[in-house]
Amino acid sequence: MIETVSMEMVLALYLSAGLSLLSIYGMVVFFGLQRQSLDEAPRIAPLTDQPTALPLVSVIIPAYNEAVNIQDCIKAVLNSELPNPGDLQILVADDDSTDATKTLAQALADQDDRVQVIAVPPRPQDAVWLGKNWACTQAVSQATGNYLLFIDADVRLAPKAIATAVTQAEQDDIDLLSLVPNILCGCLAEWLVQPVMASILAVGFNFAAVNDPTQSEQAFAAGPFMLFRRAAYDAIGGHQAVADNLVEDVALARLIKQRGHRLYYALGLDLFQVRMYQNWAGLWEGWTKNYYLGAGRNIYSTLYSALSMLVVFTAPWLGLGLALVLISNGGSLIGIATVLLGMGAIVRQYVYRRETAQRFRQPLRYFWLSWLSGLLVAAIAIGSIIKTETGWGWTWRGRPLKVQAQR
Fold first, then answer.
1. Per-residue CA distances from 365 to 34, 189, 386, 404 (Å)
2. Phi-psi label, residue 252: left if phi above 0, alpha if psi -120 to 50, beta otherwise
3. What share of residues in the chain are helix, strand, coil (percent, to 5)?
4. Domain formed by 57-186+205-283, architecture
5. What are the phi and psi torsion angles at 62 (to 5°)?
6. What is the DSSP secondary structure assignment for residue 368, as one 8-state letter?
7. Tell me, what's the pLDDT at 406?
8. What angle (nearest 5°) sits at the alpha carbon of residue 60, between those of residues 58 and 65?
9. Are the C-beta atoms of 19 and 338 separated by less than 8 Å?
10. Terminal alpha carbon distance of the chain
């Protein structure tokens, strides 16, 4: 006896199947682009042999309310293995912190004369200085190194990171070397969002294209680790040249390429690690600050990326969930086939996410919440557009952010 299926159920089953098929297509495209980018990505591993000599390096750490991070960051830099440990200058630029950042940094400076704490003066009123640009500029004015290494306070350098990076820059005549870190996650929000963001960056900024000097518009640098040859940094005008740009890392990378200097973007998973945010509130504030601007303030590409995340991460679970609900009210061959299709989409997503986790050397956690990852990242993208264009709630650690209207 053939079971009768209502037209409404048939349409719902078609919707479920459509979601599953769309998600499979989206995953094939998205993770295919990620695989291509990472396959072509250069990887820099720690040196096995210590170089006999290296140029003087100035490590610059702009810090605003980084009491939870600043001492561990400085200690990791001080533990760097260098041929001459004295050829290291650490400049902590305290950007008017309201917590104990300056006091904690100064405590280490009192113990080691390689560390210097700079009290960043108020920003000038006759020019627009956004983000960390003013603090970095003040630190550079006191830097004596042939190389300038800008890192964030949440970075933890491996002992051989500086020697490896400078040796690579010297050997390959690199003017800006930027490395992708090993991203640490602690809370649930980080596990849901950070791995997806790493994938988005790998797809959006193809390593081969970024490293191709003929593609001047394809430029990217990761703010947590930017090693400049001092001469090239000065030639492009440094952070002062991008003073009004919140996404200064990308802006500086673009200037390096456009002025004919060499940009090199590589994986440095063994050289340093970073835990960017401590909780959901910080993660939301940080990514909504940068997401839209990182996409060039292009509303269409930002919305497209939000939709893509829903297709790739959320749609498989919606398709399967809808199919299961429908057949629970009465099975049919088409219903069973739709459930199997949905399960196939979930399995494919698991395989891709496991591969991604292995690529970035992270454990695969909370995979069953991938649907929520897609929703959160899409919300971040949309929230970033709204905040940037309206200024509503657009802050960084309580400081209001304001971007000049585009001309």
1. 19, 11, 31, 40
2. alpha
3. 50, 15, 35
4. Alpha-Beta Complex (3.90)
5. -70, 135
6. G
7. 42
8. 160
9. no
10. 70
| CA 396 to centroid of chain Cα atoms | 16
CA atoms within 13 A on the CB side of 86: 0
* Tokens of residue 70, six digits: 């600043």
Query: Which mean pLDDT values do the consecutive 10-residue runs of the chain (407 residues) have?
Result: 60 90 97 97 95 96 97 98 95 96 98 97 91 97 98 98 98 97 96 97 96 93 97 98 94 96 98 95 94 93 97 97 84 81 97 97 95 98 95 83 53
Q: Specify the pLDDT at position 2.
A: 41
- For residue 168, the model assigns a pLDDT of 97
| DSSP code string of 12-53 | HHHHHHHHHHHHHHHHHHHHHHHHHHHHT--B-PPPSS--S-
Domain boundaries, the chain: 57-186+205-283
Q: What are phi and psi of 361, to 5 degrees?
A: 55, 50
What are the distances in angstroms from CA 281 to CA 278, 287, 318, 370, 395? 8, 10, 27, 20, 11
pLDDT score recorded for residue 216 = 85
Question: Residue 59 in contact with residue 228, Cβ under 8 Å?
Answer: no
- How many CA within 13 A on the CB side of residue 372? 12
Instruction: Give the pLDDT confidence score for residue 334 in this predicted structure.
Output: 76
CA dist., res. 62 & res. 139, Å (int): 8
> E strands within 204-299?
225-229, 263-267, 272-274
Question: What is the DSSP pairing of strand 263-267 with strand 176-180?
Answer: parallel
Which of 60, 243, 263, 46 lies closest to 145, judged by CA? 60
Burial class from Cβ neighbours inside 10 Å (0-12, 13-18, 19+) for residue 170 reads middle
